[in-house]
């Protein structure tokens, strides 16, 4: 939970709504609504068979994968007796609602980039740019964070090109509090330098 790079369609304008603090960006999940609702429906069908996910077994069978939506990797166990009689929504939360998600664009439509905070479901903290490089240049001079020095252009690019293209809000490293973006950028650059020397 911190910052993540999201791919969006050209010309996308994140919707605003009346929030408890005023008119502002509406938090929206960046994940795929169609995938989330399909997974929820599938898990509800298993619930109706008397089964629920066995996350502990999944982590043993597939270390490092943490939370999978690959049905071949899902593991199941009998519903705990304390949850018998519950409907699936009472156990897992309500079925996903498309109004809580960004559009389900195709890969071809997602041609632009925007930095989002994802402490909530997600709201933009930058304008939309055609390239990661343009976004990194804008962030280098316009982004504000209360936790010390900001990432350089190179550090933003390293974060954007990392496996998850995201960072936590903050990190404590060697007794220093620093922004998660700065930490991930430095870490990814160090990793790249190490790979270059091998």
Total number of helices: 6
State the strand order across the main sheet: 7-6-1-8
Uncertain parts: none
Give helix % range.
25-40%
Features:
single chain, two-stranded antiparallel ribbon, four-stranded antiparallel beta sheet, 198 residues, 32% helix
Your description of this structure?
The protein has helices at residues 33-48, 55-61, 88-92, 132-142, 153-160, 180-196; strands at 2-8, 16-19, 22-25, 51-53, 76-78, 112-117, 123-124, 166-168, 170-173, 176-179. With 198 residues, it is of the alpha+beta class. It folds into two domains: 2-30 and 106-196, no CATH class; 33-99, no CATH class. A hairpin with a 2-residue loop joins strand 9 and strand 10. Helix 4 (132-142) crosses helix 5 (153-160). The longest helix is centred in the C-terminal third of the chain and has 17 residues, at 180-196. It starts with a strand and ends with a helix. The mean pLDDT is 90.
Provide a brief overview of the structure.
The chain has 198 residues and is α+β, with helices and mostly antiparallel strands. It has helices at residues 33-48, 55-61, 88-92, 132-142, 153-160, 180-196; strands at residues 2-8, 16-19, 22-25, 51-53, 76-78, 112-117, 123-124, 166-168, 170-173, 176-179. It has a four-stranded antiparallel β-sheet with strand order 7-6-1-8. Strands 2-3 form a two-stranded antiparallel ribbon.
